[in-house]
Amino acid sequence: MLRSLFAAALALALALPAFAATPININKADASAIASSLDGVGEAKAKAIVAWRDAHGPFKTLDDLAQVKGMGPATLKRNSDAIQFSGNAAGAPAKAAKAKGKTKAKASAK
User: Fold this and answer.
1) What is the pTM of this model?
2) Which of 1, 32, 47, 59 maximizes the CB count within 10 A of its CB?
3) Which of 25, 77, 73 shows the shortest CA–CA distance to 53?
4) Mean pLDDT, residues 43-67 taken together
5) How many angstroms separate the CA atoms of 80 and 39, rounded?
6) 50, part of any domain
């Protein structure tokens, strides 16, 4: 019995990182992308985030995001590493795409 409980707890602990939030630019993403990227944020809360952003301008800090109804300290803490305020939604891949574009431009100029 104890071994079964230990095995279940270990399996759960190993599975938790799979539920981590996906990095997203909170100032550029639509409600659907926000809901699918952040842990504990459903479609209704994501729509509230977009509505607040449309009414007040871009978010600058987590404190700004805390002003959205339903975005409490636990949700913000759980997603803090995934919430981006500038740049693109995915982070580095856009920089790589820009670099590829510059490389192609230089190659065609030769």
Assistant:
1) 0.63
2) 59
3) 25
4) 97
5) 10
6) yes
